[in-house]
Give the backbone structure.
Amino acid sequence: TQTGGGGAQKKKKKTFLNLFRKKTSQQSQTITPSLTPIRVEPKTYFANERTLLQWINISMFLGLGAVAFLRLASDTPRALGISILVIALLFTLYALAVFHYRRRAIVSRSVDGHYDDKYGPTVLVVVLFVFIISTLVFQLVGVIPPPITTVDRAVRDYRIPLSTSFLNTVDLTINGFKQLKSAIQNIAPRFPLKGSFSYKSNQTVTWFDSRTSCVLHKNGFQLRQITGKDVNGGLTTNCALKHMNEDWEYINQMDIAYNGTVFNATENIFPGNYFFYGREITRPIVQNPTLRTLQNLASTFTTFFLWDYISASNWGESLVAVNPLPFNQYYYGDINANFGSGSSTKMVSIAVYIWYLPNNTPVWGEVSVSFPIRFSKPLTYQEILDAKYFYTQINTLSQYFDNKNSNEVTSVVYAQQTPAFCLY
């Protein structure tokens, strides 16, 4: 004991035992887990749930990317898409398992393990790295082509079949068309109509298909021989291949897979909100083609995805005329109207198409309300509203239109065969 400064201070003797005990006590405080009960707050559970949701978001991102790869035509991105989709599913299951493991640890107040995830983030980074690099490589080598922006020949076409009674009107092309224009103007007065339904051109149209399997029609194709006159009055013969489908995404995927193919793009809307999305390509052929010439047209349309739908064994089938008596297609136009508002108005063409048998008997007719579409300048919202209003209004003219018929002329061509042309 030492005294000083007005008081006594007791000082421990520095012995080896005291130093050892102090060092041991410090080590036990840093290494030995505390046995004091842990207080778990509600936000701890919420943090665990938020972590699960973040993992699910990442899995959904990978899944969407995998679906995009699966929609491509090439086998390599399809295989990668399947792999990434499987990994996304495994990530979801893994995240769910980790979530339950951590929840049990929190509920039981366990402190003898780690709450951190050693492997999940590392594997995720590797997968994302491979996904991003693969996307970049496919883009550079052209497996994922850029969207088509150079094709301007596209049409949104509202079509309404004419009624049978109107087709049988006396002096159809004179009095009948005048009455039709007057009825359209009265039912939709907000769109002043300019012009008249006057004769513009006519063409002879013959549909071709394979006799035994009807392979074109079954796959949504139409192969038509079109004979008419050019601007100089000379006779021309072309062959048009048209593909129609109700699924716009399906057609759009074909556009992506065959980037650069020159075609006419058409969106046909029939009564009852029945949509057809189509692509058409036209090629000139020799005058008066033989069956062999038509059969060899397959090579001409190779870029228009015929090879994807018709096997090599089908190319040997003879292509014959579906309609032995060719149809004469007459085009009467044009009446014009402005849809839209302000500076974004668009001139709309209203025309009549009528198909006649060689004896001049009308068998099919329809009114077409067409928008020219440019990919660089899509239709405005107001133009679409005006078109739908106009289409709905004239569709109520039951005296002139068959507003319950959602077919097109091709259905009439195939239906007229006795016995049926296609042997299903």
